[in-house]
Amino acid sequence: MVSSVPVLDLDEWSKAGRKRRAEIAEELDAALRRTGLFLLRGHGVPEELTRRMRLEGRAFFGLPTETKGRYAVSRPYDNGYRGLGALEVGAIDGNPGTPDLHEAYHVGPSHRTGEEAFDTLYYPENKWPAELPELRDVALEYTEHMTRISLEVLEVLAAVLGLPRDHFTGQSTRATWTQNVNWYPSLRTVGSVREGQMRVGPHTDFGTLSLLDRQQGVGGLEVWNEEDGWFAPPFEAGTLVVNLGDLMNLWSDGRWRSLRHRVLAPSDKAPDEELVSLVYFFEADPDAEIVPLAAPVGGGERMSPVIAGESILEKVGVTLNLPG
After folding, report:
1. DSSP label at residue 72
2. What spatial distance separates the first Cα and last Cα of the chain, rounded to whole Å?
3. Helix (H) or strand (E) holding 61
4. Distance separating alpha carbons of residues 145 and 162, to the nearest angstrom
5. Which of 74, 192, 255, 297 is most buried, by the most CB atoms less than 10 A from its CB?
6. 275: left (phi > 0), else alpha (psi -120 to 50), else beta?
7. Displacement of CA 167 from its chain's centroid (Å)
8. Tens digits of residue pLDDT in 20-60
């Protein structure tokens, strides 16, 4: 039997009494120990805003290749455009040589510290396409909601562990984050699929948590745990998928899993299927020291503390010249 994936309703949580909150917390904790994800209702994102975000993002991918290239990323941790096959996430899972079958457009935060070198490293400038002036306004409104939701979820997760409300959010006041619009072209568009190739290869996310607004499809999301192997999580229109990343796995000292997941290749069962996913990756303040929680709250794996931003940059392939 495939593991159940719980649904957290933020409206219900905000009104729930102590007994009901304890029930919700127990269900979330069990799922995060086992798999590392849950669905989120009551998040307050207007349906029309999500529709516009997806529409504007898809319009970007419809621009000529040369035009999109003007907004291309120029380094591993950057905002802007990545073309088809530019990423090879599956290499993380030991399956190199199979570039991912998607295009991506990345947006990041506008806040800065005033320290030029630090800001250049951790807060790359956004590359807004002049051809789609509405994309900027829609993305800024949408990501404001995503940041709000991330902080609300982190407060819930602190409560699940019996920690002070600001245990996680206190180190996330100027967090790094990336909003992706991922376009998964149809099989008819890409022409063919190599053996082992996927829209996104198996991986875990690097940050604290991720928020996914997905479209259901034949070549869609699959997640993994030890009991069930790979399985498709339930789809519920209007919900967000919340999954934990490596930073939260470390923060909880292994109590909670970093979700291993993938997006299947386009299928000959639906050769015209294309999907657009909105994925928000939330991290932490880049100079925050993330200290694993001590047992019994933490998982007891005795992981080593990290500086949040350094851990992210190292995982995306940035070599840091740090004094030692």
Report:
1. B
2. 50
3. helix 47-61
4. 26
5. 255
6. beta
7. 21
8. 999 999 999 999 999 999 999 999 999 999 999 999 999 99
